[in-house]
């Protein structure tokens, strides 16, 4: 088997942990597998480097910033390879330019364009365990780039895709993906198997186990991803192509997001071009709008409600306040104390009534719904923030997630 493994910052956080990771890799090797490893920087290192730069100057030049923050992974990959070598295994650390992993020129959030496989294959054929520095890439003109925070996950999946690996194992400090945040729902269970689509919906909701771009990558190239703990040998969660067994599960997980705020515009003239103007202005400010609802009114005007990240709430209010007179918007109102609660499940495609059941569960608990949005495999409701825990727990129970999946009924 060819296995790509990625170890996160906590897993290589100190020398003892690096030794532990080396032992785990050695075990795979002893079982006869080819192993390619991708590492993050040691825990806290990327933050430390960023702080250095921002303490020095207000706006570090993006090219130099990438040259700086990419060094964290150079350190951890070299140390891990050394540890393996000292144990008698032939291991080699590689940086992105040595492979090369080519990216575009967007410093700080570069996208991988190509992973060359010739050198990788040659080194593997020569019996080397490869320890690749995650998070970094190289442009056509030879400049170092980084892929954005958490980018080592994407490096690992990209390497696994390029090499056609049998599995990409993401070792982290949690033991898998859960049916809900275990801090809120003590009965939350580890999910054995989840589809890429479900994982994307859960990840975008803040179930931050895998970096979202790595899941998109895995989906496009069909890379099976195994999210698991580097502190145990227990299997974690497999993220794979959807199969029939998944369709039987109505709801795979309940997610919540408290990082958004709601803004409502009342009495917007119902004319072509107004939504384009409003949301164009917000987008130009680099603010990402999530849910949008427009309702017509009998008086020929419309009400519009949308959500933005809490951190952009004040800036967005300022923007729409400025537009209000020009567009003759009657009233603007907002609320920061909201939460978005979502249920996600591949089985929703085949089973009607899931959304209705969600609304009923919320109603039974006296929770008012402010906004609703749906996709094929997700239903989201915006509610008052103070009901977040109650809603998540009630939905978790009502959709049978407190029990094993086989027992589930609608
Ligand atoms: N070291 C980088 C970060 O902290 C990349 C990663 O850990 O995946 O964001
Ligand atoms: Mg990380």
Automatic annotation (TrEMBL):
Its EC number is 2.7.2.4. One of its GO terms (molecular function) is aspartate kinase activity. It catalyses: L-aspartate + ATP = 4-phospho-L-aspartate + ADP. It is an enzyme of class 2 (transferase). It comes from the Bacteria. One of its GO terms (biological process) is lysine biosynthetic process via diaminopimelate. It holds the Pfam family ACT. CDD domains: AAK_AKii-LysC-BS (cd04261), ACT_AK-LysC-DapG-like_2 (cd04923), ACT_AKii-LysC-BS-like_1 (cd04913). ATP binds at residues 6-9, 172-173, 178, 183, 208-209. The keyword ATP-binding applies. GO terms for cellular component: cytosol. Pathway: Amino-acid biosynthesis; L-lysine biosynthesis via DAP pathway; (S)-tetrahydrodipicolinate from L-aspartate: step 1/4; Amino-acid biosynthesis; L-methionine biosynthesis via de novo pathway; L-homoserine from L-aspartate: step 1/3; Amino-acid biosynthesis; L-threonine biosynthesis; L-threonine from L-aspartate: step 1/5. Substrate binds at residues 46, 73. Residues 263-337, 343-410 form the ACT domain. The keyword Transferase applies. Keywords: Amino-acid biosynthesis, ATP-binding, Kinase, Lysine biosynthesis, Nucleotide-binding, Transferase. Belongs to the aspartokinase family. This is Aspartokinase.
